[in-house]
Amino acid sequence: MFCGKMRNRNEFEFKKMKFEETEKLELKKSTSELKEAIISVAAILNKHQKGIIYFGIKNDGEIVGQNVSEKTLRDISQSISSDIEPKIYPKIIKTDLNKKECIKIEFHGNEIPYYAKGRAYIRVGDENKQLSAKEIENIILNKSKNELRWDKEVCEEAKITDISSAKLKLFLKKSGLKYDSVENSLKKLGLLSKRGLLNAAVILFGKKPDKFFPNAKLRCAVFGTNNTSLIIDRQEFTGDLFYLIEKAEEYILKNIHIGMKLEGLYRVDVPEISKEAFREAIINAFCHRDYYSYDSVNIAIFKNKLEIRSHGLLFGGLTIERIKKENVSERRNELIAEMFHKINFVEKWGKGISLIMSQEPTADFKEVGGQFITVFKRKEVKSEKDLEKDLEKDLENISENQKRIILEIRKNNKITQNELSAVIRISEKNIRNNIAKLKQKGLLRRIGPDKGGHWEVAKL
């Protein structure tokens, strides 16, 4: 009885099922369309490396069924084996859909490009497009690059003595790991193979990475206009990636406007561009750049914008539209990304772009030539004079002596009542009375004991 109910339920679910062709799914009415199906297998493999084909379902999703015998399954297997190169070994099964026999073929393979009867195709929507010789060449080149990652290659010239133990110790401390020796630590991090030091080890922890990699470099410039016609300042830095990230951040902070805002009655420095956002863009630039290219990471500060440029377009088929809408990330340099993750520089879940957008909603991304560029718009910030006006407005309802007490505490939150009396030149009794009134108004409070504690100006 129980089994019968389950069968009826499954039949009901199949009736509700709606098949629809996609880039990974092809529907064929019958094996009379086997030749076209073979082409679809190659096309789907070249685009997604896996897919499914059904025989017995029309392309509009209607399940019509297909006569299935052992010979039918064998003929399909032989056709796939003889007509597709390189060889694949699909799973071919008979399946019942809505009480009708159908054939399901599941296939996968990573040996792209695949050829169907000597020709290569690629899936575009639910159609198969024949690839040109140039497109086939690009697939082969990209495959080679993906298989041979720069950061996993051995740096033939580098030796253990070229690694800085101090840099390695600091990294391990930050990541909560123990230091043993340079060699053992690198082995545990996966940065040392039997053949020698990997590129990632040298560019992250090398004493002088630029000795082996001329592109271990950061170029920075400030321009006097909205384009590159007038250079005001230009600097170059070489070193390990952690050092270059730090220098990039310092250069930007030095050359953009730092405004101020009031938190309570305290002034707080505020960069015109979120530090958290541009730091994330800097880390992404060094993490995802194409190190096969000689070029450096470049910081360009114009009058109207900040650009962070790195060589290497989006990796793994990602598009600018996708990285904006989805928390996805494809790693060009897996080892470098993993090391950055260990010290919380990057997230494994691809949240970097959403973080940038949350802090700087007008930020933009573009690909120009072989470069990926993050663009931040510059904006006006409050000046010292503007802040003074805001402060005066906040303090307009308190006395002059109370204003002076607040201002002195802002300069030194550990100042004593005796010291306040001497600076403001009123008695300690008056100081105590004014402090009591400020406390009553919620503008001032004491944190900790009289000795060893400090004052805190409350938010208005």
Question: Can you put this structure into words, describing what you see?
Answer:
The protein starts with a helix and ends with a strand. Helix 8 packs antiparallel against helix 9 and helix 15 (417-424) crosses helix 16 (428-440). A 6-stranded mixed sheet has the order 12-11-15-16-18-17, with helices on one face. The chain has a 4-stranded mixed sheet with strand order 1-2-5-4. A 4-stranded antiparallel sheet has the order 3-6-7-8. It folds into 4 domains: 2-147, Methyltransferase, Cobalt-precorrin-4 Transmethylase, Domain 2 (2-Layer Sandwich), CATH 3.30.950; 154-211, no CATH class; 217-377, Heat Shock Protein 90; 395-457, Orthogonal Bundle (Arc Repressor Mutant, subunit A). The model is unreliable at 1-15 (pLDDT under 50). It is an alpha+beta fold and 460 residues long. Helices cover 39% and strands 22% of the residues. It has helices spanning 2-16, 34-48, 70-83, 133-147, 165-174, 182-188, 199-205, 241-255, 275-288, 320-325, 334-342, 352-359, 384-394, 400-411, 417-424, 428-440, and strands at residues 25-28, 50-55, 84-85, 91-97, 100-108, 115-116, 119-124, 127-130, 192-193, 196-197, 217-223, 231-238, 258-263, 266-271, 297-301, 305-311, 364-368, 371-377, 444-447, 454-457. The chain is elongated, with a radius of gyration of 33 Å.
